[in-house]
Design a protein that fits this description.
eight-stranded mixed sheet; Ribosomal Protein S5, domain 2; single chain; four-stranded antiparallel sheet; binds alpha-D-galactopyranose; 39% helix; 350 residues; 9 helices; Alpha-Beta Plaits; 2 domains
C-alpha cells in the first residue's frame, strides 16, 4: 500500500483573476484528500465517505462525463495522464477526504492531485510539479466542462507550510510569503452549497475574454484601470489584481489591518462588479467584520460556499463564534467554521 495526500486550498485574495493571466494569493489548507493504493489491473477506487465505487480501465479510455459522481474526476485524471504518456497501470484504492465538497475549498482539485500522484506512482511515471498541476486542471475541465483556471491544482501541489502563495498565473511562478504568527485565518461555511456555479463561471470567463478582445489585449491582466472603468466585470479583474499585489506587500510587512481592508474591498468588488456573491455570503462577511475580524471575503468561485476572514490570533475563536451565532440567528442556516493553517503541497504520505 502506498499513500498520497493532497490538500484543499483557501484563497486569501484574488478571485476570478487566474483565468485572466492575473495574480492570486491562496494557501494549501490543513484539510486534505488521501488516496491509499496498491497496484492492480484496472482502476478501482472506493470512497470511505461517499457510497459508490468506481471501476475503470487503466488506459484512460473511459469517457469522463459518462462516469457518475466523483468518479468522473478519476476518469478525467486517467484521460489526461494517458495523453501525457502514462503507461496503463491500474490501482486498487480507497479515497478519503476532510475537504468539504462544494464549499469553495477545492475538494475536487485535492482529489485529482492525490489520485494523479497514486496513478503516476503505480505506473513508474513522473511529471514535474507544474506539469502535474496543468494536467489536473485539464482533468477538472474534462470532468466538469467548467473552464477553470490553474489556481486550485497549483496551490494543492505547490503549498508551503506557514506560507501563502503569490501565484503569477501568466508566468506560472509561485512566491511563498510567510504568514505572520499573530495572524489567524478563519474559514466559515455559509451553510449554503454553491449553486449555478458551473454555468455562471463559464459566462464570467467568456465576459472577461470578450472584454480583453475588445481592447485588443491578450488578457485582462494587461488592461489599465482607465481602459475598464465602464465595464464592471473587467473592472473587478483589474482592481483585484492590484489588490492581490498590495495584499502580498501588506502580508510581508505584517500590515494586518491593511490586509483586512483589501479583503473587504475584494468582497465588495466580487459582489458589485463581478456579481458572484449571494445575500448569505454578504451577510456572513459583514458579520465577521462586525465581530472583530480585520476583513472577510467570499473565497473561490462564489455563489455559495465559504468566507475567509483574518483576525488577531488571540481573538480568532471569539470572533468566529460570535459571528457564527449572529449569522445563525439571522438566517436559520448552520455555519461551520475552522481555524486553518497553511501546509505543504501534495506528496507521498509520511
Ligand atoms: C474556481 C476555479 C479557479 C478560480 C476560482 C475563482 O475555484 O477552479 O480556477 O478561477 O474559481 O477565483
Amino acid at each position: 500500500m502506498r499513500e498520497f495526500r493532497a490538500p484543499g486550498r483557501v484563497n486569501l485574495i484574488g478571485d476570478h483573476t487566474d483565468y485572466n493571466d492575473g495574480f492570486v494569493l491562496p494557501l494549501a489548507l490543513d484539510l486534505e484528500c488521501v488516496v491509499r493504493a496498491k497496484p492492480a489491473g484496472r482502476v478501482r477506487v472506493r470512497s470511505l465517505e461517499i457510497a459508490g465505487e468506481i471501476d475503470l480501465p487503466a488506459d484512460g479510455s473511459a469517457e469522463p462525463r459518462e462516469v457518475d459522481g466523483w468518479g468522473r474526476y478519476a476518469a478525467g485524471v486517467l484521460r489526461v495522464l494517458a495523453e501525457r504518456g502514462r503507461p496503463a497501470a491500474g490501482i486498487d484504492a480507497t479515497v478519503s477526504s476532510t475537504v468539504p465538497a462544494g464549499s469553495g475549498l477545492s475538494s475536487s482539485a485535492a482529489l485529482e492531485v492525490a489520485l494523479a500522484l497514486a496513478l503516476c506512482d503505480a505506473a513508474g511515471f513522473e511529471l514535474p510539479p507544474l506539469e502535474l498541476a496543468l494536467a489536473c486542471q485539464e482533468a477538472e475541465q474534462v470532468a466538469t466542462g467548467v473552464p477553470c483556471g490553474i489556481m486550485d491544482q497549483l496551490a494543492s501541489i505547490a503549498g508551503h507550510a506557514g506560507h501563502a502563495l503569490l501565484i503569477d498565473c501568466r508566468e506560472l511562478t509561485v512566491d511563498p510569503i510567510p504568514l505572520p504568527p499573530e495572524l489567524a485565518l478563519i474559514v466559515v461555511h455559509s451553510g449554503m452549497p454553491r449553486e449555478l456555479a458551473f454555468s455562471a463561471y463559464a459566462e464570467r470567463r467568456a465576459d472577461c475574454e470578450a472584454a480583453a478582445a475588445r481592447l485588443g489585449l491578450a488578457a485582462l491582466r494587461d488592461a489599465t484601470p482607465e481602459q475598464v472603468s465602464d465595464d464592471p466585470r473587467a473592472r473587478h479583474v483589474v482592481s483585484e489584481n492590484a489588490r492581490v499585489l498590495e495584499a502580498a506587500r501588506a502580508l510581508r510587512v505584517g500590515a494586518l489591518e491593511r490586509l483586512g481592508r483589501l479583503l473587504s474591498q475584494s468582497h465588495a468588488s466580487l459582489r458589485n462588479d463581478f456579481e458572484v456573491s449571494t445575500p448569505e455570503l454578504d451577510l456572513l462577511a459583514g458579520t465577521l467584520e462586525a465581530a472583530g475580524a480585520y476583513g472577510a471575503r467570499l473565497t473561490g468561485a462564489g455563489f455559495g460556499g465559504c468566507v475567509v476572514a483574518i483576525a488577531p490570533q488571540d481573538e480568532a475563536e471569539h470572533v468566529a463564534a460570535k459571528a457564527a451565532t449572529n449569522y445563525r440567528r439571522m438566517t436559520d442556516l448552520e455555519p461551520t467554521w475552522h481555524r486553518v493553517r497553511a501546509v505543504d503541497g501534495a506528496g507521498p504520505r509520511a
